Amino acid sequence: MTDTSLHAAKPREDDAGFGDFFALLKPRVMSLVVFTALVGLVAAPGSLHPIEAFWAILFIAVGGGASGALNMWWDADIDRVMKRTRKRPIPAGRITAGEAYRFGMALAGISVVMLGLATNLVAAGLLAFTIFFYVVIYSIWLKRSTPQNIVIGGAAGAFPPMIGWAAVTGGVSVESVLMFALIFMWTPPHFWALALFMKSDYHEAKVPMLTVTHGRRATRTHILVYTALLAPLAVGIAFTGIGGPAYLAVALVLNALFLKGAWDIWRRDEARAEADGYAVEKKVFRLSLIYLFAHFCAIWLQTVLNAQGVWSW
């Protein structure tokens, strides 16, 4: 690592402002954390007082933001190299690595303690493990050591619905594990689709993404295989306690589209992909974002319908 120690400093271009510290939280990633955690909370049997639910989601969001800040602290050297990250606060010189570290650690401690006080120790423990997994297991260990970084590391982004569920129930169930599995299996094809048209960034940063270590042809095959494994899991959720006819209709359409996209990616060669600027790969990446959001929207909708005894099994 270069220039990422606690005391590493770089001349600032401007004084750090609120927007710079907020950017450390990775707000776009945090929004997904908040949404999936909220769906886990809503879908769980039982309920929280609205004020308790608000605090639970807030502290889960803060914990997600803490993970983002600590990830940026550790990955500052990589972020300086990659085009899509070089304008982040640390590589841009607006915040020092030490400031990001202290900020992230403070938020991590606050989020875990306060979630435990607002809900229960199981939810707090899951949040603490999620932060640890994302920062230590994924960012510090897996990301720079294996092309399976996204496969294993994807677990970090899959925990939020489990945390939301545990905030209500005080435990883990088959349904919360299935929501975890949905995100876990979705993560590799989602990121590999991105890596196909961002390979040069990972290569220059010496990150062993699958496209770098095994090439784009192998990556295309992996996308197809993981999507084929994801589809029956996603559809199968329809026949569990958090599923139903509405969810099934959404899952069938989305998984048909995602499978077709993965098939289209697999069929393409590099010459054709380069000729059209990786248009298909970019389209499938955008679809993958809609895919996850829509599945969790469907779980939320089906929860409401099941509670009312309307359009349910």
Automatic annotation (TrEMBL):
<feature type="transmembrane region" description="Helical">
    <location>
        <begin position="95"/>
        <end position="115"/>
    </location>
</feature>
<dbReference type="InterPro" id="IPR030470">
    <property type="entry name" value="UbiA_prenylTrfase_CS"/>
</dbReference>
<feature type="transmembrane region" description="Helical">
    <location>
        <begin position="121"/>
        <end position="142"/>
    </location>
</feature>
<keyword id="KW-0350">Heme biosynthesis</keyword>
<feature type="transmembrane region" description="Helical">
    <location>
        <begin position="245"/>
        <end position="263"/>
    </location>
</feature>
<protein>
    <recommendedName>
        <fullName>Protoheme IX farnesyltransferase</fullName>
        <ecNumber>2.5.1.141</ecNumber>
    </recommendedName>
</protein>
<keyword id="KW-0472">Membrane</keyword>
<dbReference type="GO" id="GO:0008495">
    <property type="term" value="F:protoheme IX farnesyltransferase activity"/>
</dbReference>
<dbReference type="InterPro" id="IPR044878">
    <property type="entry name" value="UbiA_sf"/>
</dbReference>
<feature type="transmembrane region" description="Helical">
    <location>
        <begin position="54"/>
        <end position="74"/>
    </location>
</feature>
<dbReference type="Pfam" id="PF01040">
    <property type="entry name" value="UbiA"/>
</dbReference>
<keyword id="KW-1133">Transmembrane helix</keyword>
<keyword id="KW-0808">Transferase</keyword>
<keyword id="KW-1003">Cell membrane</keyword>
<dbReference type="GO" id="GO:0005886">
    <property type="term" value="C:plasma membrane"/>
</dbReference>
<feature type="transmembrane region" description="Helical">
    <location>
        <begin position="219"/>
        <end position="239"/>
    </location>
</feature>
<comment type="function">
    <text>Converts heme B (protoheme IX) to heme O by substitution of the vinyl group on carbon 2 of heme B porphyrin ring with a hydroxyethyl farnesyl side group.</text>
</comment>
<comment type="similarity">
    <text>Belongs to the UbiA prenyltransferase family. Protoheme IX farnesyltransferase subfamily.</text>
</comment>
<comment type="pathway">
    <text>Porphyrin-containing compound metabolism; heme O biosynthesis; heme O from protoheme: step 1/1.</text>
</comment>
<feature type="transmembrane region" description="Helical">
    <location>
        <begin position="284"/>
        <end position="305"/>
    </location>
</feature>
<feature type="transmembrane region" description="Helical">
    <location>
        <begin position="149"/>
        <end position="172"/>
    </location>
</feature>
<dbReference type="GO" id="GO:0048034">
    <property type="term" value="P:heme O biosynthetic process"/>
</dbReference>
<dbReference type="InterPro" id="IPR000537">
    <property type="entry name" value="UbiA_prenyltransferase"/>
</dbReference>
<feature type="transmembrane region" description="Helical">
    <location>
        <begin position="29"/>
        <end position="48"/>
    </location>
</feature>
<comment type="subunit">
    <text>Interacts with CtaA.</text>
</comment>
<dbReference type="InterPro" id="IPR006369">
    <property type="entry name" value="Protohaem_IX_farnesylTrfase"/>
</dbReference>
<feature type="transmembrane region" description="Helical">
    <location>
        <begin position="178"/>
        <end position="198"/>
    </location>
</feature>
<keyword id="KW-0812">Transmembrane</keyword>
